[in-house]
Amino acid sequence: MTHKAFTLIELLVVISIISLLSAIGVASLNSARSKARYAKAVADMKSMDTAVQLYYDANNAWPRDTNEATDRGAPTANPITSYMATWPTPPCAGWVYDYFFEFSWRKMVQVNLINASGVYINSYCIQVGDAPNNFCNIGSSKLITAVTNKAITCSEIAPII
């Protein structure tokens, strides 16, 4: 009497193939999530820029900076929140957005994404008035539009370039 069954080798080969395909799927998912975080951060920063511009149009003055530690991520203390549907939630837990202005010679608004350790991960720079055309390219390694792989990993402490 003969029994038909899979051999141990055949079972191990099938299990190995399934494991390999699962690992590839998880890696692809993580890559897609990192890219989604990047897209969200860019959209959030552009939304904050629009709110800052709307504030200026309504008040003929720029709102105060949020780069003081007490304001970071605190929408109730922030004058631009009335020009936004909601204050954006950063793509990673513990991270915050802030913005500041430099008008003495630079003529720019900068929106920043800051990680939980207080490290500036990425910035979105907006030139205003008669700013030099290349101002926002100074320190461009942290400009979010200059990130080459278009991804944000929450555990990073420096931008991926």
Task: Explain this structure.
This protein has one domain (9-146). The protein is built from one helix and three strands, in the order αβββ. It has one helix at residues 8-59; strands at residues 96-102, 108-114, 120-127. The longest helix has 52 residues, at 8-59.
Question: Which descriptors apply to this entry?
Answer:
about 160 residues, alpha+beta, 3-stranded antiparallel sheet, rod-shaped
In short:
The protein is α+β, with helices and mostly antiparallel strands. It is 32% helix and 14% strand.
Protein topology:
Layout: H1 8-59, E1 96-102, E2 108-114, E3 120-127
Antiparallel strand pairs: 1-2, 2-3
Strand order of the largest sheet: 1-2-3
Count up the domains. 1
Largest sheet: 3 strands, antiparallel
Estimate the mean pLDDT confidence: 74
Radius of gyration: 23 Å
